């Protein structure tokens, strides 16, 4: 009987990783320690035991979620399987926030004419500047 109780215990960071909220367990535990994961309005630690029926508020760079645990998932599964272990109960206000953030998400590309020139632009400038020196 003690063996079944130990298999029913599941750490919060492992659960969030298994249901694919975070890409790694390290990211999940870091988010917990930074106060980005809350239960009933208060921050929770990564080692907290997850129970069916718990509700968590999760914030990361791209999204705000509110989920309710419907089952315990110990190993990482495909997304189609993982979504069966929680219910997304995100408020409409947070869903609108998620859409705004997704629309302005930074892709990493440099905006034209802002910041340091690219290698190609530097070569063009060097060629242009060398051409000026020869004329003088």
What CATH calls the topology is Structural Genomics Hypothetical 15.5 Kd Protein In mrcA-pckA Intergenic Region, Chain A
Assembly form of the protein: single chain
> How many whole angstroms does the radius of gyration measure?
24 Å
- How many helices in DSSP terms? 6
The percent of residues in helical segments reads: 40-55%
What is the annotated CATH architecture?
Roll
Strand portion: 5-15%
Major beta sheet summary: 5 strands, antiparallel
Name of the CATH first level:
Alpha Beta
- The backbone outline, from C-alpha atoms, is elongated
Cross-sheet strand order for the largest sheet: 2-1-3-4-5
How does this structure look, described?
Helix 2 crosses helix 3 (25-33). Strands 2-1-3-4-5 form a five-stranded antiparallel β-sheet. Mean pLDDT is 83; it is low at 1-6. By secondary structure, the chain is α+β, with helices and mostly antiparallel strands. It has one domain (2-109): RNA-binding S4 domain (Structural Genomics Hypothetical 15.5 Kd Protein In mrcA-pckA Intergenic Region, Chain A). Helices cover 41% and strands 14% of the residues.
């Amino acid at each position: 009987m003690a063996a079944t109780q130990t298999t029913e215990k599941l750490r919060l960071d492992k659960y969030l990783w298994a249901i694919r909220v975070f890409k790694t367990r390290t990211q999940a535990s870091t988010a917990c320690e930074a106060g980005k994961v809350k239960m009933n309005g208060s921050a929770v630690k990564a080692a907290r035991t997850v129970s069916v029926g718990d509700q968590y508020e999760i914030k990361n760079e791209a999204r705000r979620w509110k989920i309710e645990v419907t089952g315990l998932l110990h190993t990482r599964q495909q997304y189609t399987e993982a979504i069966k272990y929680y219910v997304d109960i995100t408020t409409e206000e947070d869903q609108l926030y998620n859409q705004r953030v997704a629309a302005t998400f930074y892709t990493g590309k440099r905006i034209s004419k802002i910041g340091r020139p690219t290698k190609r632009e530097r070569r063009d400038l060097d060629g242009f500047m060398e051409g000026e020196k020869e004329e003088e």
